[in-house]
Specification:
CATH superfamily of the largest domain: P-loop containing nucleotide triphosphate hydrolases
Oligomer: single chain
InterPro entries: AAA+_ATPase, ABC_transporter-like_ATP-bd, ABC_transpr_CbiO/EcfA_su, ECF_ABC_transporter_ATP-bd, P-loop_NTPase
CATH architecture of the largest domain: 3-Layer(aba) Sandwich
Keywords: ATP-binding, Nucleotide-binding, Transport
Number of strands: 19
Protein name: Energy-coupling factor transport system ATP-binding protein
Pfam family, one: ABC_tran
Number of domains: 2
GO molecular function, one term: ATPase-coupled transmembrane transporter activity
Structural class: alpha/beta
Strand content: 15-25%
């Protein structure tokens, strides 16, 4: 169903091929996992399968990519999409409308389906993916995990014959990840061919029929999923763990570890909600300890990202009071004394070079990170780039970087501010094993320097490595439910 025959692809802005002599086949009723270190060529395979690489990136292509026996070179992207559904790593990049119900309907409308049938398809897809309560909401108000579910539901309601998924669990909580694994098993039983590109491996145990490991654009290993249990193979190719124990239950609650620790930030009378719905927070209080990594946990849509925006001043909470070291902090000053790494890296990168991004973050912070002369600041920039494995990319434009490189860059920018409070929203999304370990080490180092690090993450490997404690946010299921941070 999905077939590559000796395929090579080179982007116009890079001299070396991103994919080199790859041949693979995904048959109906089969799930194939493609993994490897960041930059190995996984995402390019997805772009080749759906036609984006040839038609939008305009690189050099040789070999053949066939979907359903038809050569992609002879088809438009829209024609390929009739047979092949694509889930991108950043789901909002594939939205066409601003309402959840409209997003589930738009593909059927383009194909001229009867309105009554469209309504039935929307209701069915919403029920299958737990989206019924969100149908009237704007896609802009959804959490990243909810956006991922909407995107996948909109694809599957079109009933494609094959599916390609690029980092599909990057924004999903563990429960939703389990749901996705079960959904893939169902799709296999229905005869769909599924190609998954992912760094996270554990969730595909019992789901993936075969695994391909890529390195520098080529397939260097192929076998059953159990092949990934070989620790030497994983270390050699920079792969993540093939099995992960859930560390969340073992993390002590935030309130149980605060005794004797200085507070990095205190928040009182914190209330906030969206529109006429139930408030996410109502008269909540929060004490964040210095020198600790706090895991901010909860299901998709629980308000984790919203809380991060409130604590850093990016969103205003009317009547809330903030203080640090016993002194009041104006909401307008929260952003200056804190750092935040957003889930979508494109929302934070706006300079012309990698080095300029870090330098800009340093200057914006003021205080200690901006002290010293220009030469001293430039030296600090180079040191941070080295720590994050970006020192060879200082002059590159941020948008020319791979997803993993951009992810490391925004975390480096957060550290450049040397804040008292550093909040990171899914900082290891799309990162391989080696770079996940690098981020873990940097977060621990910031905590040891006295910073409070708040980590919003569904990455079980990362949580188990770095967190001292957890703050858990439940999901409000009705209008009478609110959340109170400990």
């Amino acid at each position: 169903m999905i077939r590559f025959e000796n395929v090579c692809f080179t982007y116009p802005f890079r001299p070396e091929p991103a994919v080199s002599n790859v041949s693979l086949r995904v048959r109906p009723g089969e799930v194939v996992l493609v993994t490897g270190a960041s930059g190995c060529g996984k995402s390019t395979l997805v772009r080749l399968a759906n036609g984006f690489a040839r038609q939008h990136f305009q690189g050099r292509v040789s070999g053949r990519v066939l979907i359903g026996g038809r050569d992609n070179a002879e088809r438009s992207v829209s024609d390929i999409a009739r047979d092949l559904g694509t889930l991108l790593q950043e789901p909002e990049a594939q939205f066409f409308t601003l309402a959840v119900a409209d997003e589930l309907a738009v593909g059927h409308e383009w194909r001229g389906l009867d309105p009554g049938r469209i309504t039935e398809r929307i209701a069915q897809a919403a029920a299958e993916f737990g989206l019924s309560a969100l149908l009237e909401q704007s896609t802009l108000s959804l959490s990243e995990g909810q956006k991922q579910k909407v995107a996948l539901a909109s694809i599957l309601t079109m009933e494609p014959r094959a599916l390609v998924l690029d980092e599909p669990t990057a924004n999903l909580d563990p429960e939703s990840t389990d749901d996705l694994a079960r959904k893939l098993v169902e799709l296999k039983a229905k005869g769909l061919a599924v190609l998954v590109s992912d760094h996270r491996l554990y969730w595909l145990r019992g789901v993936a029929d075969r695994v391909l490991v890529m390195e520098r654009g080529a397939v260097v290993a192929e076998g059953p999923f159990e092949m990934l249990d070989d620790a030497e193979l994983r270390a050699r190719h920079g792969l993540r763990q093939s099995s992960v124990d859930d560390p969340r239950c073992g993390l002590p609650a935030l309130e149980d570890v605060r005794s004797g620790l200085a507070d990095s930030l205190e928040a009182d009378a914190l209330s906030f909600g969206y529109g006429a719905g139930a408030p996410l927070f109502q008269n909540a209080s929060l004490r964040l300890p210095a020198g600790r990594v706090v895991g901010l946990l909860g299901p998709n849509g629980a308000g984790k990202t919203t809380l991060a925006m409130l604590l850093t001043g990016l969103t205003a909470a009317k009547g809330a009071r903030f203080s640090a070291q016993g002194e009041r902090v104006r909401p307008s000053n929260l952003l200056r004394r804190s750092g935040i790494v957003l889930q979508n890296t494109d929302h934070q990168l706006h300079m012309r070079s990698v080095a300029d991004e870090v330098h800009s973050a340093m200057r914006a912070a003021g205080g200690a990170s901006a002290c010293g002369g220009e030469a001293e600041r430039r030296q600090r920039v180079q040191e941070l780039l080295r720590l994050y494995g970006l020192d060879g990319l200082a002059d590159r434009h941020p948008q020319s970087l791979s997803g993993g490189e951009r992810q490391r860059l925004v975390v480096a920018c957060g550290e450049a501010k040397e804040p008292d409070l550093l909040i990171l929203d899914e900082p290891t999304s799309g990162l391989d094993g080696a770079n996940m370990g690098l981020i873990a080490a940097r977060l621990r180092a910031r905590a040891e320097a006295g910073c409070c690090v708040v980590l919003i993450s569904h990455d079980l490997e990362l949580l188990g490595r770095v967190c001292h404690c957890a703050l858990r946010l439940p999901l409000a299921h009705n209008s009478n439910t609110t959340k109170e941070a400990a």
